[in-house]
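Handoff note, outgoing to incoming analyst
You'll be picking up this chain. Sequence as last confirmed:
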Amino acid sequence: MSNAVKARTMKDTLCAQMENRSRRIFYGRIDPYLVNGCEVVLDVNARTTASLEAVLHDFWRRILGVHDKSTVAFLYSETGITPLPYRRLLLALRYFRYLLLLPDRHYSHLAVSVALDLACQGKPSWISDLLHVFSRLAPNVHLNWRGDVEPTSIDDIMDAVKLAASTSLATVIDHSPKGRPLRGFYTDIPLPLSLRPLVDKPPEDLVAITRLVMSSYIFAVEVLRWRERYRKFVPRKWRLCRFCRLSVEDEVHALLSCTGHIELMHRRDRFFTEVTAIVPTFHELRTSPCTGLEQLWFLMRVPDLRYTFAKYVHDVLDFFATVPVYVPPPPLWEHYRS
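Most recent structure output, in case you need it:
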C-alpha cells in the first residue's frame, strides 16, 4: 500500500475530530506517511508529491470547513504548516547535515562524498537530485557542492528554504483576487491565525471566520466564479448582491454596506455598536476616507474584536444562506463579455 493511500485512509478516519486537536492528529497520524522516505528519494519534479499533497489538502479543507476549490496557499497560511514540498526538502537537508557530521570513515558519510564526486563529474547522484529540487522550489538558494560542504552551511540553506516557502505563499496571496482578506493594510497589527485564537469558540463561528479569510463563502463573487453544467462563467461586474442587486456581492458589501435586507441592517448596527464599545475610535474609521476593505482589515486584526467579529460573520452568512445566489440573465453578462 502506497504512502498516499495509507495517509488518505487515516485522513478519512480522523477528519471529524475537533479543530483544536487537528494539528496534533495531523502530525501524529498523517504527516509520517507524507514525509516517509523524503530524505532518500528526493522530489525532482512536482509529480512525485502530487498524490501526497492531495491528501494533505483534503484533510485541512475538511477540518477548516472550506470547499474543494479553495486556494492551496490559503490552507498553508491559515494552518501555519510549511508547504509539503518545502517540508520534505527541509527534512532531506536535515538528513544531509546529519550525514556530514558523521565520522569520515562512516559508510553514510562516504556515500555522501561519492555523491558529491559524481555531481562534480556531471553524473546523476543524490546531490544532483538535490540541485534539481533547489532549482524548482528555491532557485535563489546556493549550495557550494564543488567545494567542501560544511554542516553550518546547511543550516543557512535551510533558513533560505524556509524563506522561499513563505515567499511562495505571499506571492500567491498578493496576486490572487481571492486573497484580499489575507493581504495586510495595518502592518503593525498582525492578522491572527484562525485556528489558534478561536479554538475555544463555537465551531460554527470558527468555520465562518475561516471561510471569510480563505474566500470560501457563499457570496456571489465566489460562487459565480465557477462554471457549472448549465451556467457559464459570470463576469465579476455582474455577480450582484442577492438582496439589493446594486453592487457586487463580495465580503465588503455583505458585511459592511448592504441595505437590501432589514434584519441584516439591524444586525450590522448592533455589531457596530458592540465594536465602538470595545474600540471607541472605530466611529472615526467609519466616517474617514478609508475604503470598506481597509475597514474590514481593521476588524480582522484587532485582537479584542475577534470573537465579536467571528459571531457577526457567522450571522451574516446565515442571512445570505436563506436566499439563493442571484444569477443575472445570461444575455446581460454574455453581451458584456463580448
